[in-house]
Specification:
single chain, 2 domains, 13 helices, hydrolase activity, HARBI1-like, nucleus, nuclease activity, Putative nuclease HARBI1
Length: 321
């Protein structure tokens, strides 16, 4: 680890190479130590610190394994093995790091922050799917081709006002529509059975449900227009999260492994993103691409739930008339 860090002098340099400063790297090493500690102490075995730095370098840069290997004097296959083992270790922390607020106080704070964006009441999260491009897989290649003709994993994310990811589904190939990913997710079944204390905002690719509000497709009044404006402005949060995630971890812009390992890498980066947000790791806002505008992909027509229409009508009358 001394060799890896020897050329790095400042916190700014550490952040730009590894996406974490010294304290953040020490924290990650402590969290991952039980998963990465090798029982043998061979002279050439890598320390936990070295493994974590190699993996962070890859996640942050997306460089070829050879490039990282040459820069630190290990073999290409070592970089590959280390990255996959750190990715698996981080993925195992997903349920610990990616979750809805656990108490009333956190939930209320989150609602207040989301309300402060554009006056959208009682909102606990914003949902969207985003595609992570992968190389053409060797098996069932056609399933991974998305509507733009590229191979991808389609990932469902729910985010909050702190730009943290509070729920994710990382397993579907790129050809699968957002609405199907939702309907087959654990969160859908949980919220259909027990309505949450608050609503989630989604685009018109989703069905209107009593806990999931979508915008009006056709606006016929000022109050509906006001609702749509607040909805779109607040929903921009999930676009920002996507932008930050892919900026922080450039490896996510094109993942050169098979789908199962790609899912581990995506989960690992989601865990790292949440840790970085929680630790308030600084970001250079100028470097983060702005959301591409909320351009919605064509999706199959969604059937609205009558209970969802009733909640939406009540919201418009109460808050936007």
């Amino acid at each position: 680890s001394v060799q890896i860090l020897s050329k790095v002098n400042t916190t700014h340099e550490l952040n730009s190479i590894y996406r974490f400063g010294t304290q953040g790297i020490i924290y990650l090493c402590d969290v991952l130590r039980p998963h990465l500690q090798r029982p043998t102490v061979r002279s050439h075995a890598l320390t936990v610190e070295e493994q974590v730095l190699i993996a962070l370098h890859f996640f942050a840069s997306g460089s070829f394994f050879e490039v990282i290997a040459d820069s630190i004097g290990v073999t290409k296959s070592t970089v590959g093995c280390v990255m996959h083992s750190v990715a698996r270790a981080l993925s195992s922390l997903l349920n610990e790091c990616v979750k809805f607020p656990e108490n009333e106080e956190e939930n209320l704070q989150n609602k207040k922050q989301l309300f402060s964006i554009a006056g959208m009441p009682n909102t606990i999260g914003v949902i969207d799917c985003t595609h992570f491009h992968i190389q053409a897989p060797h098996e069932r290649e056609w399933e991974f081709v998305n509507r733009k003709g590229r191979h991808s994993i389609n990932v469902q994310l729910i985010g909050n006002a702190d730009l943290r990811i509070i729920n994710c589904v990382v397993r579907w190939p790129g050809s699968v529509h957002d609405s199907r990913i939702l309907r087959e997710s654990h969160i859908y079944h949980r919220f259909q059975q027990n309505t949450p204390d608050g609503i989630i905002l989604g685009d018109s690719g989703y069905p209107l449900l009593r806990w999931l509000m979508t915008p009006f497709a056709t606006v016929t009044s000022n109050s509906q227009q006001n609702f749509n404006y607040a909805h779109t402005s607040t929903r921009g949060t999930i676009e920002r999260i996507n932008g930050i995630l892919k900026w922080r971890f450039a490896c996510l812009n094109y993942i050169r492994v098979e789908p199962k390992e790609a899912c581990n890498i995506i989960c690992a980066c989601i865990v790292l993103h949440n840790i970085a947000q929680k630790r308030r790791v600084p970001m250079d806002e100028d470097d983060i691409p702005l959301p591409e505008g909320l351009i919605e992909a064509p999706q199959p027509h969604q059937t609205d739930e009558p209970a969802g229409r009733a909640v939406k009508r009540a919201m418009v009358n109460l808050y936007f008339s």
